[in-house]
Specification:
The structure holds two protein chains of two kinds.
Chain A lengths: L5 H16 L3 H13 L12 E2 L3 H11 L3 E7 L11
Helix pairs in contact in A: 1-2
Chain B lengths: L8 E7 L8 H10 L11 H4 L5 H6 L4 E6 L5 E6 L13 H15 L23 E8 L11 E6 L2 H6 L7 E4 L4 H4 L21 E5 L1 E10 L2 E14 L6 E13 L7 E14 L4 E14 L4
Classes of the chains: A mainly alpha, B alpha+beta.
Chain lengths: 86, 298
């Protein structure tokens, strides 16, 4: 994961600015709906954590940075919690 | 809880006790858990719950544990993620319980637990700079709050999808199935009855149907716009052909001089039917998603 790139922010700004000026009501309505539905930072709080993809990667990083690891252990054949589709 | 976890590198692991490559930390946790019954740390719990018999303890075990490891991989503390004293007059929520256990481990590690830490910014998944569509999906189930946590999936944008959605000043139709890799991410978290009983994995979307209309939607400055709209039907891979539908609207922006879209925003508004066994009726729960392009200029 990494921060949003600036190009994305520019395009988002372009689209949002357009929403205020566009002659197409459908465009304004869609962008308003997008802003309403999109989860806010509170709902996405789990992405404030320093997630890494695997325990091995976490332990390598822990040694390098002298940091502890929080390991979620799931007793199941499947357990992808990063996307929320678990 | 998010604040309590700020010092930590966070990851997950899943598997079974007889797996040949069981990590040492997991082996340590499960040896304690499945031996004579792990005893939770005594402080606070004594105040809130009566001691449990070993049999009761085992009955209350969940299949999710949280282990705190020091930087060298030693297990400093672990606890059952759902075995909290959540009933009775001195109820504590799962979040409070989890934060308390994390803070205990933090103090065991000698870290500064009491200081208020700055929160990291929200950092959503991406594809390391590759153009992609991110889909954030929410099942607005007011009875099962765990299901209302948003899911976040990221899928790459392919050349075929760009070609399919290329700019035109003429209206045309597009089959939703051609955008399956994006639209198939619109399903809720692991809803119990839509989970494979063998693998415990949520059923994925097997088919996407519907005919969408792609229409020019004006220009502004150096961008032209098109809107893709229509109703889509999603059917999962369960054997009973369970499905649901909803309205899709995507806005695509095309920079001057290019037929390839450079950004998109979109919404899905649908209804997810769940059968309520307690009241013997179907509950129609709003299922909503947003689509947003990321790194499309890279």
């Amino acid at each position: 994961m990494r921060p949003f790139v600036s190009a994305f922010v520019v395009l988002l700004t372009t689209l949002t600015a357009t929403a205020g000026l566009a002659s197409e009501p459908s465009v304004r309505r869609l962008l308003a709906r997008y802003n309403t539905i999109r989860p806010d930072d509170d709902q996405l709080a789990m992405y404030r954590l320093d997630w890494v993809a695997s325990l091995a990667e976490a332990q390598d990083l822990a040694l390098l940075e002298n940091r502890p690891v929080c390991l979620v252990v799931i007793h199941a054949r499947y357990g992808n919690i990063t996307s929320g589709h678990c | 809880m998010v604040r309590a976890l700020q010092p930590y590198i966070v990851t997950s692991w899943h598997g079974h006790r007889n797996d040949p490559d069981l990590p040492e930390a997991v082996r340590t946790v499960w040896q304690e858990k499945f031996s004579s019954g792990h005893k939770p740390r005594p402080r606070e719990l004594k105040k809130t719950v009566e001691p449990r018999s070993p049999q009761e303890h085992r009955q209350r075990q969940s299949n999710v544990d949280i282990a705190i490891l020091d930087s060298e991989g030693n297990v400093v503390h672990w606890f059952d993620a759902f075995q909290h004293p959540g009933r009775g007059p001195q109820t504590q929520t799962l979040a409070t319980y989890t934060a308390g256990e994390i803070q205990f481990a933090t103090s065991e590690l000698g870290l500064t637990a009491g200081r208020r830490r700055a929160l990291r910014p929200v950092d959503l998944p991406d594809l390391a700079g590759a153009p992609a569509v991110r889909i954030l999906c929410t099942l607005e189930d007011d009875r099962m709050l765990a299901y209302s946590a948003p899911t976040v999936e990221v899928v790459p944008i392919t050349g075929a999808e760009r070609e399919l959605l290329a700019w035109s000043d003429q209206q045309r139709t597009v089959e939703a199935s051609a955008l399956k890799s994006w639209l198939a991410q619109v399903y809720p978290p692991g809803v119990m009855e839509r989970t494979n009983p063998q693998t415990k994995e949520a059923y994925r979307i097997e088919s996407v149907e519907g005919t969408l209309t792609l229409t020019p939607a004006g220009t502004r400055g150096k961008h032209r716009f098109m809107m893709l709209t229509g109703t889509i039907g999603l059917t999962d891979e369960g054997e009973d052909y369970f499905g649901y539908d909803g309205k899709l609207e995507l806005l695509l922006a095309y920079p001057e001089g290019s037929d390839n879209f450079s950004a998109l925003r979109g919404v899905f508004d649908g209804i997810y039917p769940r059968f309520d066994r307690m009241h013997n009726r179907q509950r129609n729960i709003p299922l909503r998603a947003v689509f947003e392009s990321i790194d499309t200029d890279s």
